[in-house]
Design brief:
The protein is globular. By secondary structure, it is mostly helical. Helices cover 65% and strands 1% of the residues. A two-stranded antiparallel ribbon has the order 1-2. It starts with a helix and ends in a 10-residue tail after the last helix. A hairpin with a 2-residue loop joins β1 and β2. The protein has 21 helices and 2 strands.
């Protein structure tokens, strides 16, 4: 909360620098948010070191509910004519790095609001990395205990080590952001646009300063830059530490990274071949648009340079599937995550081998290490809840009058934190502004579910959680 309050002064300074009175919006929001944050710190500082497991679940979920609640204040106070529903939706989309938006007319928006959207996604990206490293493995959410640090047997050992790693990763995160902004600027973006897009690219968020997203620039160099940095944001940031420590091969030696890049390459290749068959563009142009938009979807960034929902049935099917995949654990992406697909594949392979050799002993492996049974069970439970949550969100959207394609793709894009869906309403060329308010609250809840890996939120709904 206090971090958000400090961050609000950045867009306030941007508006003040160009003489816009909207700086008062952020100053007011910052004062109110800082007051709430300081009060929370003062009332909980003596208890924060002795959290129980249940309290950790409550604290994590409530934090991700309260943050968008206060981050929505500038959207309400600004001259955007947004209801609190729209403002909360936009803030939740930003902090969860989803990228769905209800704001139209970004090309003419004041710099403070545009910068605030980018800051929300940038802060949400580093927040997700920190949570994936220090919190989710301890909570054993969806198989994340696979990435538990060697020294994480007791909380006394975990927190100092986790804090050191998160600090080092934050430096890498800032460095990649600045590098991305520099390249954008060299390729023709204004300094403001370059910084705003760099923040949302490395965070795989997808908020842009233009309604047409990066398609506004129509520049192959910018598209390629975005594609590379979206991929960099989707890889485990812990492995970047190994690269800096003199182990550059450790990044591509990781099985999860190889699988992720292979799936992305397969998707790009398939869509490129389809578009080349009778398409109007030559091979380099087709490859450029296919690579950019496919990588944008699989990483959950949500940028767009073309309306891929009009590419035909096969590309739409590929893109819809890739919405669920996501990137690697320990990155800024969401979705199912590649490591869970690997765990299920290894488990299914062992099951099929047992059918052929009933008396054989077969053990599933991940990164050349045996997969514990509790991890396998946790991953299978995650998949079940993921499918059920996707179906229930789509059905709930249908109840409030949303058409089938919008409901299904909206559910997928919310729970996978992708951004745009499919079709004319919420596709790459549309927005979520026309949806009814109940649908926006449902989608906001879906974003929260996907960002916190389902279990962290759904465990609070169990009656047994609140007993004793």
């Amino acid at each position: 909360m206090s971090t958000l309050a400090v961050a609000m002064f950045v867009p306030a300074a941007a508006d003040l620098a160009v003489g816009n009175k909207e700086w008062q919006v952020f100053a007011t929001g910052a004062a109110l948010t800082l007051f709430i944050g300081v009060m929370l710190v003062l009332t909980t500082r003596s208890k924060i070191r002795n959290l129980s497991l249940r309290q950790a679940f409550i604290l994590t979920t409530l934090s991700w509910v309260l943050m968008p609640a206060v981050a929505a204040l500038p959207f309400i106070f600004a001259d955007l004519d947004l209801s609190y529903t729209d403002a909360f939706f936009e803030a939740m989309s930003g902090l969860t790095t989803t990228g769905s938006t209800v704001i139209i007319g970004l090309d003419y928006a004041l710099p403070g609001i545009v910068l605030w959207r980018a800051l929300l996604q940038w802060l949400g990206g580093i927040g997700i990395i920190a949570m994936a490293i220090s919190i989710l493995p301890l909570l054993q959410v969806g198989g994340m205990q696979l990435f538990r640090m060697e020294s994480s047997d007791t909380s006394d050992k975990v927190m100092p080590r986790a804090a050191q790693i998160v600090t080092a990763i934050a430096v890498i995160y800032v460095a990649l952001t600045l590098l991305c902004a520099l390249i954008y600027w060299l390729f023709g973006m204004t300094g403001f646009d370059a910084m705003a897009h760099a923040m949302t690219t490395i965070a795989t968020g997808g908020f842009s300063t233009h309604d047409a997203s990066l398609g506004f620039y129509q520049d192959a160099r910018i598209d390629m830059t975005a594609t590379v940095f979206m991929l960099l944001g989707s890889l485990p940031f812990v492995l970047y530490l190994q690269v800096l420590r003199g182990r550059p091969g450790g990044l591509f030696a990781d099985n999860q990274v190889r699988w992720f890049l292979a799936i992305a390459a397969l998707g790009v290749g398939s869509v490129t071949l389809w578009l080349l068959d009778g398409g109007p563009d030559d091979f380099p142009t087709t490859l450029r648009f296919a690579a950019f938009n496919v990588v944008s979807v699989i990483t959950g960034t949500g940028y767009a340079t073309r309306d891929y929902s009009e590419w035909g049935t096969f590309p739409v099917a590929i893109i819809f599937f890739l919405m669920f995949v996501g990137g690697c654990a320990g990155s800024t992406t969401c979705g199912v995550k590649v490591f869970r697909i690997q765990v299920l594949y290894a488990t299914a392979r062992c099951q099929m081998r047992r059918l052929l050799q009933p008396h054989g002993v077969f053990i599933p492996y991940y990164n050349r290490r045996p997969i514990p049974e509790e991890v396998t069970a946790s991953v299978m439970g995650f998949f079940f809840l993921y499918v059920v949550s996707f179906a229930l969100i789509a059905i709930a959207l249908g109840i409030f009058g949303v058409d089938f394609l919008t409901a299904v793709s909206g559910s997928a894009t919310a729970i996978s934190n992708v951004g745009p869906g499919l079709g004319p309403v919420i596709g790459p060329s549309g927005s979520f502004s026309s949806l009814p308010d109940p649908a926006k609250w449902i989608l906001a809840f879906g974003m929260l579910l996907g960002r916190l890996e389902l279990f962290t939120v759904l465990v609070l709904l169990l009656p047994s959680f609140w007993r004793n």
